[in-house]
UniProtKB/TrEMBL annotation:
This is Diguanylate cyclase. Residues 24-272 form the EAL domain.
């Protein structure tokens, strides 16, 4: 009919798109209330050091979970929305406080008092002028050893506003927190730039670990990252290690730090 043709040609009102927009707006509203309602929680996944055939836990990575009223929502589904809406600023601050609190709690735990805690930092959060001051304040307020706090940054965050970023990274280093480059190998940083940064760790992206036993390209990439780590004197941690075979292969290649389901899934702090 002519009515339908008209709709085809001028479909500025798309009910499906409208629905997506409304759902997103609703999610932002729900997320806005999530902290107060205590729906956000940090789970922690163990990080392992293997030395002389012995594996021990040396730290954890904090990974956020949202127990929303509609069910459990994974970080990949709400962190981007938190970033878009600006809610990542209060949420990111909550994450830091929560992780610092956990460090504090574990100070009284014989088994866990030496564990360091790695926290994922969103670019939006890092870019804020007061990011370093906020960390400085929290570290002093909670009186934690800053060495126990490790920040996971991504390569793409590091290559934005290089001058500004370099200044911030140096200040963070002076504060005593340690820095890790997450998902290493998937971004766009250059080695020339990396060598200027006082970082401590490269985290090999799990996409290179998954098929390391069967894909010679992945094997070569991991080999290269390990040799960069060695030359720059950085710790290298493999993420997404799921099998004994992957672990053994990585050990034989000279990798010492591991994280993945083989050693434990992310869990509540008391269930680790
Ligand atoms: P990421 O930082 O690279 O975290 C690693 C992801 O791999 C986590 O997913 C973890 O649960 C998962 N993982 C760990 N071991 C294995 C394994 O053996 N096999 C497989 N297949 N996966 C494994 P998760 O918790 O869903 O987090 C996804 C991403 O969301 C994170 O990637 C990070 O970019 C972001 N994210 C998580 N928590 C936070 C947070 O507190 N703040 C910010 N800004 N981002 C976060
Ligand atoms: Mg991470
Ligand atoms: Mg990662
Ligand atoms: Mg990742």
């Amino acid at each position: 009919s002519s009515k339908e043709k008209g709709r085809d040609r001028f479909s500025y009102f798309d009910p499906k798109l409208q629905q997506i927009i409304e759902e997103k707006a609703q999610m932002v509203e729900e997320l806005r209330k999530a902290i107060e309602r205590k729906e956000l929680v940090l789970h922690y996944q163990k990080q392992i050091l293997t030395k002389n055939n012995k594996s021990s836990v040396i730290g954890v990575e904090a990974l956020i979970r949202w127990n929303s009223q509609k069910g459990l929502i994974p970080p990949n589904s709400f962190i981007p929305i938190a970033e878009e809406s600006g809610l990542i600023i209060p949420i990111g601050k909550w994450i830091l406080i929560e992780a610092i609190n956990q460090i504090k709690l574990w100070e009284n735990n014989k088994e866990k008092r030496d564990w360091r805690v790695s926290v994922n930092i969103s670019p939006k959060q890092f870019e804020r002028d007061n990011f370093v001051d906020l960390l400085d304040l929290l570290i002093k307020e909670y009186n934690i050893n800053p060495n126990k706090l490790r920040l996971e940054l991504t390569e793409n965050l590091l290559i934005k506003n290089v001058e500004e970023t370099l200044k911030k990274i140096k200040k963070l280093f002076e504060l005593g927190v340690t820095l890790s480059i997450d998902d290493f190998g998937t971004g766009y940083s250059s080695l020339a730039y990396l060598k200027q940064l006082p970082i401590h760790e490269l985290k090999i992206d799990q996409s290179f670990i998954r098929d390391i036993l069967i894909d010679s390209n992945d094997f070569s990439i991991v080999e290269t990252i390990l040799s960069i780590g060695k030359k720059f004197n950085l710790e290298v941690i493999a993420e997404g290690v799921e099998t004994k075979e992957q672990h053994e292969m990585l050990v034989s290649m000279g990798c010492s730090y591991f994280q993945g389901y083989l050693f434990g899934k992310p869990n509540k702090p008391d269930s680790l």
